[in-house]
Amino acid sequence: MSFIKFIKTASLVVITTLFVAEVSASEMVLKFGHVGKPGSLFEASANEFAKRANAKLKGKARVEVFGSSQLGKDKELLKKLKLGTVQFALPSSVMASKVDEFGMFDMPYLVKDRTHMAKIEKEIVRPTLMPIAEKKGLKILALWENGFRHITNNKKPIDVPADLAGIKLRTPKSTWRVKMFKAYGANPSPLSFSEVFVALQTGTFDGQENPFAQIASAKFQEVQKYLSLTGHVYTPAYVTVDAKHFAKLPADVQVGLAAAAMDTQAFVYKIAAELETTLLAELKAGGMQVNTANKSAFIKASDAIYKEFASTVPGGGPLVEKALMLGK
Question: Which of 13, 41, 173, 250 is 20–30 Å from 200 (CA)?
Answer without folding.
Answer: 41
